[in-house]
Amino acid sequence: MTSDPHARVALIIEDDADVRELLVMTLGMNGFTTFEAENGRQGVALVREHRPDLVTLDLNLPDIDGVEVCRQIRPLTDAYVVMITARQDEIDRLIGLEIGADDFVVKPFSPREVGARVNAMFRRPRSTGRDGSQPRPGAGTAEASQPAGVATATVGQPAQAGNLLTHGPIDVDTEGRIALLDGVELPLTRIEFDLLATLVSGPRRVWQRETLLARIWGDGWINDQHLVEVHIRNLRKKLGEDTKAPRFIRTVRGVGYRMIPPSAA
Hints:
Structural class: alpha/beta
CATH architecture of the largest domain: Orthogonal Bundle
Strand content: 15-25%
Largest sheet: 5 strands, parallel
CATH class of the largest domain: Mainly Alpha
C-alpha cells in the first residue's frame, strides 16, 4: 500500500497474490493509494471503510462471485469498477456491465493497458471529488458543448436554463448531475448519466457509437462499441422504455442513437 494521503484510492479485490502485486505496482505508478482484499466479503467491507475511487474486481473469487460483489458494492459507492477475469466469454462482459461495472479487462493483461484505461475513466467528470470539489467539465457532458445561461425554444432542441437541459418530461441538471423523469430522480450510473446528458444536449443529432465512445469513455475505445450498446440498454430500462416502441431513445440502425422529438414521445 502506498502512503500519499492526497492520492486517489484504489481497492484491489483479487485472490491471486501475483496479480494483486502487479495491480498494486501499476496503480501506485498511476498515483493511487492502494488497499487489497483477498476475497469478496473482505472487499465489500473495505469499500465501506475506505470509500475508494476505483475498485478492480476479480470475477472468479473464492467465496463470492465477482458479479455478486459488484452488485453488493454498487449501492455503497460511485467508484469506477473494473472487472478482471481469465474468462473470455462475452456473456461475462455483458453481465458485469449490466450490474454496474465500468470496464472489463481479460487476463493476462498489460499493466500499460490497465493504466491507460483507468486514466481514461478518470478523465470523465465525477459528481464530486473526494474533497467535495466540483468535476472538471468533460467532453461527454452537456456542459462542454452548451454556454451557460442560453435558452432555446426550437422544436427538437432541449430547453436550457444555465446547467439544466429539458427534453419533454426529462430534466438533466449537468452541474448537479441529476436526471429527472416526470419530476422523479432517475437512479443512473455515472456512464448512464453522461450518455443521457450527451443525447439530450443534441437531440436532433444522430450520435454515432464511435463518437459516444470517444466523448464518454475517451480515446482508444473504438473497438468497444458493445460498451455503448449495453449502457444504452440499461439507460432505456431506467427510462421505462418499451424496446418495441421506444419513447425517448431511437436506434438508427448501423449508425447510433438519437432522441425522439418530445411531440412524438
